[in-house]
Amino acid sequence: MAFNVYSDRPEKTLHGARTFHVASAVMRLAVAVEDAAIVSVEFQTNLVAPPETPFERQVAAELEEYFGGRRTVFSVPVRTEGSAFEEAVWAAIAQIPYGETRTYGDIARQVGRPAAARAVGTAAGRNPTPIVVPCHRVVGARGRLGGFGGGTALKRWLLGLETRHRPVGRNNAGASLFGLLALVVGLSHACTDPERPVFEAGDTSGVDSLVVSLSTAVPLGITPEGFPAG
Reduced to 3 states, what is the DSSP secondary structure of residue 39? Predict the structure, then answer.
């Protein structure tokens, strides 16, 4: 999948970082980097500066490889700033292997707060570097997809992409289940109500700048307009 990068507006900065924009057939991303580390990834439609430095071009290349199903691990460093709890949640999310999923409860137990599944959802919604720190791999209990800053359609697509390109020999029943749900079922609540908030009540903090309108998912073998088959 080739990425098209446009430069029709001046670059902008985020907390002193340089932000460049990358547009693909899947989405448009604004990536902010500072001191050779990614500090922010946002889903948005405004396209500004292209990647210019070798590091920025490496980031763009790795994103291209990921969306093309050719990369399962990012090598570029990430730097985040959050509360101690948020940092623990983001670190746990970063450890979820490609093609696998964990529930919010799993992450809560991993960080030593077994009763804090909802707080984990809030922290995941505040993740400043989605895709690279793969919060789309965190799902709800009992077959619920859960929220995502880029929208549930994109979350389903990402899980489906990773299910299709998961390394041979990896056996993860949870990933297979949610990959199939993402591709086949489309999870009826998102299909029937595309305007539904991306996070459940109480879990919407910190995701306002990440929301982008995407078409709802459809059954296996048919992709929403603009979504490649992967």
Answer: strand
